[in-house]
UniProtKB/TrEMBL annotation:
Organism for this UniProt entry: candidate division KSB3 bacterium
Protein name: Formate C-acetyltransferase/glycerol dehydratase family glycyl radical enzyme
Record PANTHER family: DEHYDRATASE YBIW-RELATED, FORMATE ACETYLTRANSFERASE 3-RELATED
GO molecular function (one): lyase activity
Annotated stretches, region: Disordered: 346-365
Sites of Glycine radical modification: 452
Record has Oxidoreductase as a keyword: no
UniProt keywords, alphabetically: Lyase, Organic radical
CC terms in the record's Gene Ontology section: cytosol
Residues of the Glycine radical domain: 357-475
Signal peptide: none
Domain PFL: 1-350
Length: 475
């Protein structure tokens, strides 16, 4: 597990948190380039230029550094009930999971696959890979295994929404999408509350070691799980955001703008997994507008998808519940697993293919460079999201010499000033990574960012290496 060392940020008295020790930590991370611990730099408005350049210089040499933005993180925590004096002291645990240190208990999370409600909305609430099936008449469709590990492996069924032929605009589809998101989140809340009740009964009279180190548990003589701490959080990780956005963009372009086919016709093609429609599938993969290329109307769709998700997460919170659900945009390492039982989608994705990763665009479709990508991402309402990583792979030539460093630092700073939330960077070329696969003895110290942690590239499995290689390279 990653160990986080948090520096910088805004202090409770609203003074900057950077000091001489902050500089030393960044210098040490730069010189040693260890896999662990992770330096988390909290960006804040007015960050001193010398320190920021030092951080960016270390990142371009692949030091284990990630950056979070106080200007979005602090308001996001406050939006879900965290008091201002606590929100300003946020830290991290898990894999890119911001938290309120010593004020909340253990990590609880659900990876909410944002593609599932889309395929339900396109199929009247039916699971397209088994349309004859039904959800349980009693209880929850979230299996015990899913609830324990936090994934959504299928099948999942929704509520009856209008048939595709009754949808006359993308807004009609988005309305159905919202209904399916709401239904699935309400189902999970119900399941979580039942599990929580059983957990309390099972653990009655027991304490955990972490109870000794949290505020409130000793004073109130009760465990954090019983309400001893101020905050109780379940992280609901919205996964596959870009896959949903690209799918909606394809529908808007193909069906409602160009009118090349009807929505029912497209849905039938998806049900067949593009059989006999390989040319159309290739067009949908490569020729449709895609998120990450600074296309205003596509970026607006990203805002709408994330807004729906955050609205519906907030909706299932209520004063009578001990735990509050906090939304993030993240897949961690599970973007491959989460696609395995999802049907074909309008972005050109086949049955079982991986979904988009974390906050990144769909693999290989963001072709307009770093500035365009960051412009697209800045349209997401990050002030409502409490975590999640953005993985960037930048070609070394783009950050070469002092001029390259200053351009790199300015690009990241502009992104944060426009409302971006988080960044972690790999500065390495595709050629270098391929050579490292062939000649691992030459790259023993090549450390790369995976998601919430770093790894030595040559110690990673082939599948994980290939995923990193296939991330779009920014010039």
């Amino acid at each position: 597990d990653p160990n986080y060392l948090v520096i910088g940020g805004e202090l409770p008295d609203h003074q900057p948190g950077v000091n001489e020790l902050s500089h030393l930590f960044v210098e040490a991370a730069h010189n040693l380039r260890l896999r662990n611990p992770f330096i988390v730099v909290r960006y804040y408005q007015g960050i001193e230029k010398e320190f920021w350049l030092k951080v960016c210089d270390a990142m371009r040499d692949n030091a284990s550094i990630i950056v979070y933005n106080d200007m979005t993180m602090i308001p996001a925590f406050q939006a879900y009930g965290v008091e201002p004096d606590d929100a300003i002291n946020y830290g991290l645990y898990g894999c890119n999971d911001p938290n309120i240190p010593a004020q909340e208990g253990g990590l609880r999370q659900l990876w909410f696959n944002l593609l599932r409600p889309l395929e339900l909305a396109l199929n009247g609430g039916k699971y397209p890979l088994n349309p004859q099936g039904e959800r349980p008449k009693e209880g929850t469709q979230y299996s015990l295994n899913n609830r324990m590990i936090g994934l959504m492996t299928g099948p999942y069924y929704g509520i009856k929404t209008p048939d595709p032929g009754e949808m006359h605009s993308l807004e009609d589809l988005l309305d159905a999408y919202r209904q399916e998101v709401r239904f699935l989140l309400e189902d999970y809340r119900h399941a979580f509350e039942q599990d929580f009740k059983l957990e309390l009964e099972h653990n009655a009279g027991r304490i955990r070691i972490e109870d000794c180190f949290l505020h409130g548990t000793i004073d109130q003589a009760t465990t954090w799980n019983n309400g001893g701490t101020k905050y109780h959080k379940v992280t609901v990780q919205g996964s596959g955001m870009a896959s949903v956005v690209d799918s909606l963009a394809a529908i808007e372009q193909l069906v409602f703008r160009d009118r090349e086919m009807s929505l029912p016709e497209l849905v039938e093609i998806l049900r067949s997994n593009y059989e006999g429609q390989e040319f159309l599938q290739a067009r949908l993969r490569k020729r449709m507008p895609k998120f990450g290329n600074d296309i205003a109307w596509v970026d607006d769709l990203a805002n709408k998808v994330v807004t729906i998700f955050c609205d519906e997460v907030a909706r299932v919170n209520a004063p009578e519940y001990v735990y509050t659900f906090f939304p993030t945009i993240s897949t961690d390492r599970d973007f491959t697993t989460m696609g395995e039982d999802v049907g074909a989608t309008p972005d050109g994705r086949s049955i079982g293919e991986q979904i988009s990763e974390n906050q990144s665009p769909t693999e290989g479709v963001d072709t307009e460079g770093l500035t365009a990508l960051l412009n697209s991402l800045s349209n997401i309402p990050f002030h409502r999201i409490t975590g999640g990583p953005l993985n960037l792979r930048v070609h070394p030539s783009a950050v070469k010499a002092q001029n390259g460093l200053e351009m790199f630092a300015t690009a990241l700073q502009t992104y944060f000033e426009k409302g971006g939330m988080q960044i972690q960077v790999n500065v390495v070329s595709k050629e270098q990574l391929l050579d490292a696969q062939r000649n691992p003895h030459k790259y023993k110290n090549l450390c790369v960012r995976v998601t919430g942690y770093s790894a030595y590239f040559v110690q990673m499995g082939k599948k994980a290496q290939d995923e990193l290689i296939n991330r779009t390279e920014k010039q």
